[in-house]
Amino acid sequence: MIGEKSGQCKICKKSGHTEWHHIISQHHAMRTGQTSLLHNPDNVIELCRRCHKQTTASMVRKRLTKIHGPLVRTVRKRLTPEEKRAAKLKLKRDREKLVTDSLEEMSDRGVALPRISIGPRRTMNRFYTRNQKFDDSSEIQIKSLYPPDHWLHSPPDYSPTLSKRFERDWLWTAGGGAMSKDRYKPEIIEQLFESRPGISYPRAFRMAWKMSVREAN
Ligand SMILES: [Zn+2]
Description:
Distance between the termini: 71 Å
Structural class: mainly alpha
Radius of gyration: 27 Å
Number of domains: 2
Shape: elongated
Order of helices and strands: EHHEHHHEHHEEHH
Strand order of the largest sheet: 3-4-5
Strand content: 5-15%
Helix content: 40-55%
Bound molecules: zinc ion
Largest sheet: 3 strands, mixed
Number of strands: 5
């Protein structure tokens, strides 16, 4: 069996994403029934994409593909329009569930407001404005702030320190952004809900915000 990748290209020595290049090509191995060559560790070499694309096999494949179309056509079952629609709907539901579950979990931790929706761009614009005193605040990207239970969490970008610091002053919202805690007035919102049955949450929030600004002035 082919072993673990080292993450370094054998030709140019660059580290990062690598691929296995088969010295005796997979196509030839299949065609001639030598399937053991596919998994033989001595028949592969670890290359970065740039080097891999320049191997003879890859360049021949590209030339042939240009002339004849892809060598191996994947046969996929044709879906009826109903099946297509159902599949699309399921995908959408799955994605929505992911977001809802994540918001609920973060809300239990006390770091999210699921009923408010703010986008990442608006959030970071506010964040930069507020943190102007830190020269490097514009270098901070929201993807480094998403905690592990956020549906947009990205392990390679995640900074635990920045994320924890961020959650001290901000609350995650639907839409992938966050709201600064000093804008959140739970008591006023509570009162609005009591005095105006049926008021929507975003509307109550906006009213509470206006009232608290008036109070402050
Ligand atoms: Zn390389």
